[in-house]
Amino acid sequence: MILVRHLPTSFNRKGLLQGKIDNSILPIFESERKEIEKNLKFINKHFSNPIILVSKYKRTQETASVYGFESYTIDERLNELDFGDYEGKEKSLLISEKPDWLTNPLSLRLGEELKSFNSRIIDFLSSRNKDEEIVIFGHGAFIRAAISITNFGSLSNMNQIEIKNNELVVL
């Protein structure tokens, strides 16, 4: 399974939490085009006919299209975490007001309870065949949580992981 975080939006460039706010990606910089080419070479080297999955948010769908994948399937289990009142605000505010975000996220409820977010990701991961060629164009919190669940058994370590926009991760 290959996961690619969506290309940047205006919120990403400003350091604001997006969650369920449905922003479009911004015009692409040359450095991002080069990274897209590198990522596509990797995808094409490892997968001959991948299943392309996206969330319901246009930033993931637009990223898949920029990569040349016009045919994709929306799976709402891939949706970004709902940050509730913190959406549109700087991540530092969330961290200062809810320090458990860094060390014990499962104890939190933002717009979505993190235990529900954890269950949603586990449900998705357990529903997929390990041999399927899957490329997911997803979101930062989703990808970090999927890595944490895969490597540590829960999303407890998700906020110790950094995933940049347009970064490719093999799970």
Brief rundown of the structure:
This protein has 171 residues and is an alpha/beta fold. The protein contains seven helices and five strands.
Can you describe this structure?
Helix 6 crosses helix 7. The mean pLDDT is about 95. About 40% of the residues lie in helices and about 10% in strands. By secondary structure, the chain is an alpha/beta fold. Strand 2, helix 3 and strand 3 (about 75) form a beta-alpha-beta unit. It has one domain (about 1-170): Rossmann fold (3-Layer(aba) Sandwich), CATH 3.40.50.1240. The protein is globular and about 45 Å long. A 5-stranded mixed sheet has the order 3-2-4-1-5. It has 7 helices and 5 strands.
CATH topology: Rossmann fold
Number of domain units:
1
Please report which band the strand proportion falls in: under 5%, 5-15%, 15-25%, 25-35%, 35-45% or over 45%. 5-15%
Enumerate the strands of the largest sheet in spatial order, edge to edge or round the barrel: 3-2-4-1-5
Integer average pLDDT: 95
Distance between the termini: 5 Å
Flag low-confidence runs.
none
Gross geometry: globular
How would you name the CATH homologous superfamily? Phosphoglycerate mutase-like
Structural class: alpha/beta
Strand tally is 5
Kindly provide the radius of gyration, computed on alpha-carbon positions and rounded to a whole number of angstroms.
15 Å
